[in-house]
């Protein structure tokens, strides 16, 4: 299960730069009463910085068209679909404001070229769709809805993403992980004790591990904080002020197995040093989600 989780990737917040793919956002619930700031109607506020109600309305229309969400307020499924679109649109803008504030805090200078490339990518994608289906009403409506303001938002997101991913100031935690799976806590404790007393982890794992998804010998390799489910992540990367030993162990139970983890080579790495782009994006997603969690987020529009 652990190995398949790593292969499948981690949490996703940042989309790619074609409009149809720009809908992967973190879904967080909650809303408050209608409000405004400085006389300008606001849909939300992040650390006191408002998210424009007009931009929210524009993004709702974009998300409706991309998702082909019908304006059906009568049926429960229709209302659920509309609420999902509204939530996604608002969260896109909230996430963008979090990114904007982090770019400022890091004293970064997003690339004008990244903005221009993102804008062109969206326009090219829409033009290609229209060429393929010149009479498609949804594509035509999407082209009209993707006005300069909307394109600027996506272009800003692309440039901010690139700037943050290249920042040496953003650090991510990593460790080398070995794992074996036992069917009972008693067995897990027994195997851990054998290894701690000098037995080779790979030998014990090959002889006793029950999870076929684990690699032979249990050597998973380098993992980064946020890649695994929360209960595993907390055990491997505990929030403690004391220095971790060079090699440590943890037993974590999931629905099927008791996993024995051997954790070593803990370190902090700059996000910019990670060369795998998919992994780097995934880790940036996790980092941004943490920053959003530390932010004061207020919602002023009702969802659904």
Number of DSSP helical runs: 10
Give the DSSP E fraction (strand runs of 2 or more residues). Answer: 15-25%
Distance between the termini: 36 Å
Shape: elongated
In terms of quaternary structure, what is this?
single chain
What are the salient characteristics of this protein?
304 residues; 4-stranded antiparallel sheet; 2 domains; alpha+beta; 8 strands; Chitinase A, domain 3
Q: Could you please describe the fold and organization of this structure?
A:
The chain has two domains: 2-7 and 170-270, Roll (Chitinase A, domain 3), CATH 3.10.50.40; 12-169 and 278-299, no CATH class. The chain has ten helices and eight strands. It has helices at 2-8, 53-67, 76-105, 112-132, 137-145, 148-165, 185-196, 201-208, 230-236, 277-293, and strands spanning 35-37, 40-46, 49-52, 171-182, 219-224, 247-253, 258-270, 297-299. Strands 1, 2, 3 and 8 form a four-stranded antiparallel β-sheet that branches. Helix 3 (76-105) packs across helix 6, helix 4 (112-132) packs antiparallel against helix 5 and helix 4 crosses helix 6 (148-165). The longest helix is centred in the first third of the chain and has 30 residues, at 76-105. Mean pLDDT is 84; it is low at 10-37.
């Amino acid at each position: 299960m652990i190995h398949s989780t790593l292969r499948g990737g981690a949490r996703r917040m940042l989309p790619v730069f074609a409009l149809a793919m720009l809908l992967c956002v973190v879904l967080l619930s909650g809303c408050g009463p209608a409000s405004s700031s400085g006389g300008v109607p606001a849909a939300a506020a992040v650390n006191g910085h408002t998210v424009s109600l007009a931009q929210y309305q524009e993004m709702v229309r974009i998300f409706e068209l991309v998702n082909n969400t019908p304006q059906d307020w009568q049926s429960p499924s229709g209302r659920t679909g509309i609420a999902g679109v509204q939530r996604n649109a608002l969260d896109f803008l909230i996430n963008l404001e979090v990114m904007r504030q982090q770019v400022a805090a890091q004293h970064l200078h997003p690339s004008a070229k990244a903005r221009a490339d993102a804008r062109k990518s969206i326009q090219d994608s829409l033009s290609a769709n229209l060429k393929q289906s010149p009479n498609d009403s949804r594509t035509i409506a999407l082209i009209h809805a993707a006005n300069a303001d909307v394109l600027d938002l996506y272009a800003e997101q692309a440039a901010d993403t690139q700037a943050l991913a290249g920042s040496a100031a953003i650090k991510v935690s990593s460790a080398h992980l070995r794992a074996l799976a036992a069917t009972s806590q008693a067995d897990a404790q027994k195997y851990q004790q054998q290894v701690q007393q000098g037995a080779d982890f790979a030998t014990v794992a090959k002889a006793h591990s029950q999870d076929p998804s684990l690699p032979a010998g249990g050597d998973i390799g380098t993992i980064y904080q946020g890649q695994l489910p929360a209960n595993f992540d907390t055990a491997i990367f505990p929030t403690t002020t004391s220095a971790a030993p060079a090699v440590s162990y943890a037993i974590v139970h999931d629905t099927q197995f008791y996993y024995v983890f051997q954790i070593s080579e803990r370190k902090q790495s700059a996000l910019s040093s990670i060369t795998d782009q998919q992994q780097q994006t995934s880790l940036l997603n996790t980092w941004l989600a943490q920053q959003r969690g530390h932010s004061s987020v207020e919602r002023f529009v009702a969802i659904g």
